[in-house]
Amino acid sequence: MKKTQTRIKMIEAAIDLFHQQGVNATSIDEILAQSGTGKGQFTHFFKNKDGLVKATLIYLSEIIQSGQVATVYQVKTWQEMDLWFQSFIDFQRSVNCERSCPIGTIGNDLSSKQSELREEVIRFLSWSRNELARFFQQEKDGGELPPSAKPDALADFCIAIMQGGMLLTKLKRDTDAFENAAEQARIYIKSLRMTGDKGRSL
Amino acid sequence: MKKTQTRIKMIEAAIDLFHQQGVNATSIDEILAQSGTGKGQFTHFFKNKDGLVKATLIYLSEIIQSGQVATVYQVKTWQEMDLWFQSFIDFQRSVNCERSCPIGTIGNDLSSKQSELREEVIRFLSWSRNELARFFQQEKDGGELPPSAKPDALADFCIAIMQGGMLLTKLKRDTDAFENAAEQARIYIKSLRMTGDKGRSL
Amino acid sequence: MKKTQTRIKMIEAAIDLFHQQGVNATSIDEILAQSGTGKGQFTHFFKNKDGLVKATLIYLSEIIQSGQVATVYQVKTWQEMDLWFQSFIDFQRSVNCERSCPIGTIGNDLSSKQSELREEVIRFLSWSRNELARFFQQEKDGGELPPSAKPDALADFCIAIMQGGMLLTKLKRDTDAFENAAEQARIYIKSLRMTGDKGRSL
Amino acid sequence: MKKTQTRIKMIEAAIDLFHQQGVNATSIDEILAQSGTGKGQFTHFFKNKDGLVKATLIYLSEIIQSGQVATVYQVKTWQEMDLWFQSFIDFQRSVNCERSCPIGTIGNDLSSKQSELREEVIRFLSWSRNELARFFQQEKDGGELPPSAKPDALADFCIAIMQGGMLLTKLKRDTDAFENAAEQARIYIKSLRMTGDKGRSL
DNA sequence: AATGAATGAGGATTCATTCAT
DNA sequence: CATGAATGAATCCTCATTCAT
Questions:
Q1: Which of C45, C138, D51, D197 could potentially form a cystine with D46 if both were Cys, beta carbons 3.0 to 4.6 Å apart?
Q2: Which stretch of DSSP H or E encloses residue A28?
């Protein structure tokens, strides 16, 4: 697979720069320079910038869904749930609070006309939502959460806090608000769980 | 005040376009065309694009802080608190879920170097956070919230959900996730309040 | 009108280059270099290449219709009719047989999508056709041409020979074919006229 | 002949696209896409774009000269002469008046430097001119045309009207002008013939 | 004969900014 | 306060050509 190396180098440079600056603020030349590749190859592999953005979104989804990133998207135990918000906060710290969710950042830069790209973003958001929802459903089924608990709504709640927290952190260059929000969320989820069984950890 | 008319027209066009497309995707010419003004006047009033962005942020803060917008930023009663999330959801519906928080949108487009502009964004975020925090403090002081309640954290929690919910809505073109998240947040806040007094509304 | 000087310089350079090479083979940079103008002004005045082509067609129509060119488009007497074909042949000789009709050349380079530009070309062709048709009608009315003569058809006949002759001349770098065709056309028209009055010149 | 299939597919795609859009407006990639072939094969067979254009001109000449096209280039009888203009008009109708003579179109896009390619175009034009000239000579020899008739000039006259008519039709998207011109040409030629013998058809 | 990766020049367009009037 | 011409860098994209396999 030697020949695809160039393609991957371009995608990885694009992810890095899009994540830092957004799509609109990143020029193709910048990506080519950072990846050490040429203009013709860019067209050859991606046709145009939107093509690269799409490839970037797909690639990002793949590496996140296969667990090759620091942030925890998949949750199976209460212990992992406990770490869920924290992994995003830790990520932010590791990048000096200068970034947000890569897919949210890219999505935020899409115009109304780029519906194909937005589909890709939505696909990812649905996946991450469903990962959490599945966990809440599992705990509901297992009696750890009360029958009144709504797994989907809880998942949306967590995702909203995560996205909002990431954005606030990036804007403020400070994780305080995110930490506060995450703490309240954890208290709430814990309170639901304690309804079922008051002795557990979260 | 004839002379400031041009300036205001420019700012209002800029707010509209920045809100829709972000700062980077909006050209000065587009703003001039939409406001029916000329290039020389732009330089005269704002010197350059950053100057316009700053003026835009200040103007936005002013109209929001003086209550000239549909969304409810200031909360004095539990009834208003109840409407807080809803007003943002209603706003999204009114714009076909195509926008997010104007200041968040602008802030998201700032580069690391535009620290003066980011200061402006942070100033606004702090204000909106403090508006909520003041309310929670007031209720804590009045015994409506328990001594363990953290007004600042609760405010950050609400702001994070609002920003995250707005972003998710814009990305998905659908308020479902935001509504779910807001509902969980209301349940949580209500649960805190019920700790103090179980009979109230929220 | 100092300020429009740049615009005119661009148009004149464009006419020259389009006429020589066609529209597709002429780059904007080439036009800017030849006219000694800048890229920004190009956008300012014409928005894009199609805008320049349109301005070029309009300008060409104007100078031709106001008689500021060597070729004779307007015919009022049989003497002028006699010179009609010759003026195009002479023009070709003056440019080493390297050009054709400027408007035909531009029109030939238009794609199916550029219907607005084609309208402009058609407008000119109709005008030039009508100039001839008016002459033939006048002669028919005056009894110089027989009642069976069709002024419109004769005009189309002349225009077709002119366009075809110009093209053949450019392709062959030689006016022989054009001269032959023009001679036959003159013989035909003369024969029509002789029907009415055998003593005149053409 | 499996191996030449690719070459022929490329040439035929090129003819089609060059005829539609001209040479300059057609990219090699477009030809490869339409013919379902690859870049390496292109170089292998034609070396570069000019090589393809040349092969295209030769191929076009061959299929026209061997009578594999709808348009009638070869004339042996007055009946065929009668159909000569009409076959070009019919062709235009069949392509919605969106094309012109393929070789004229290609020739028109050649630059001053592509003299080898222009030679190829001239070779074809001479052939088609000579086809007509031979017919007129034959009729002159046979007494159908008067001694004063000039076969070469008559041929150039017909070719000019055909090329001009095709161009006008493409520009106007309408065969009216071409039909008018062709009708006048037929009247003229008929008048010559009637000089010799007044009873024949054309 | 075939595939498609790689290169890099050039071309169209956008755009922030400066300047003359 | 107002208009809009002028500048030139930068951006996105196209494309002919070369090369490795």
A1: D51
A2: helix A28-35
3-state secondary structure chain B: CHHHHHHHHHHHHHHHHHHHHCCCCCCHHHHHHHHCCCHHHHHHHHCCHHHHHHHHHHHHHHHHHCCCCCCCCCCCCHHHHHHHHHHHHHHHHHCCCCCCCHHHHHHHCCCCCCHHHHHHHHHHHHHHHHHHHHHHHHHHHCCCCCCCCCHHHHHHHHHHHHHHHHHHHHHHCCCHHHHHHHHHHHHHHHHHHHHHCCCCCC
- Which residue in A25, A98, A163 is closest to B164 by CB distance? A163
Return the residue of A nearest to B121 by Cα: A171
**Cβ neighbours of D159 in C, within 8 Å:** 164, 168, 177, 181
User: Which residue out of D124, D180, D183, D191 would a mutagenesis test of the C interface target, given it has the greatest number of C Cβ atoms within 10 Å?
Assistant: D180
pTM, rounded to two decimals: 0.91
Residue C163 to residue D166: CA distance in whole angstroms? 10
D197 Ramachandran zone, left/alpha/beta (phi>0; psi -120 to 50) = beta
Alpha-carbon distance B80 to C17, whole Å?
Answer: 69
- The DSSP H or E segment spanning A166 is helix A151-172
Report CB contact under 8 Å: D184, C153.
yes
Say how far apart CA B186 and CA B82 lie, in whole Å. Answer: 7
Are the beta carbons of D138 and C165 closer than 8 angstroms?
no
Are B98 and A112 a contacting pair, CB within 8 Å?
Answer: yes
The alpha carbon dihedral of C144, C145, C147, C152 has a sign of negative
Distance in angstroms (rounded) separating the CA atoms of residues A173 and C94: 72
Crossing angle (nearest 10°) for helices C176-196 and D151-172: 90
Considering Cα of B77, then B79, then B82, then B86, what sign does the dihedral take? negative
Residue type, B144: E
Exposure on the CB side of residue D28, measured as CA atoms within 13 A: 14
What contacts C11, CB < 8 A, 6 or more positions away?
C52, C55, C56, C59
**Each residue's pLDDT tens digit in chain A (202 positions)?**
345 689 999 999 999 999 999 999 999 999 999 999 999 999 999 999 999 999 999 999 999 999 888 787 889 999 999 899 999 999 999 999 999 999 999 999 999 999 999 999 999 999 999 999 999 999 999 999 999 999 999 999 999 999 999 999 999 999 999 999 999 999 999 999 865 444 445 5
Alpha carbon distance, N-terminus to C-terminus of chain C:
46
Q: Is D108 helix (H, G, I), strand (E, B) or coil?
A: helix
Which residue do the tokens 């309804």 mark?
A195
Q: Which residue of C has its CA nearest to D157?
A: C181
Residue C199 pLDDT: 45
Whole-angstrom distance, CA of residue A134 vs CA of residue B132: 33
Rg (CA), chain C: 19
- Cα separation of C40 and C49, whole Å? 13
Average pLDDT (C135-159) is 96
Least confident of A86-95, B64-73, C123-132: B64-73
* Spatial distance from the CA of A83 to the C1' of E8 (Å): 49
Tell me the residue length of chain A: 202
Residues D38-67, mean pLDDT to the nearest whole number: 96
- Which residue from C107, C158, C149 is spatially nearest to C130, judged by alpha carbons? C158
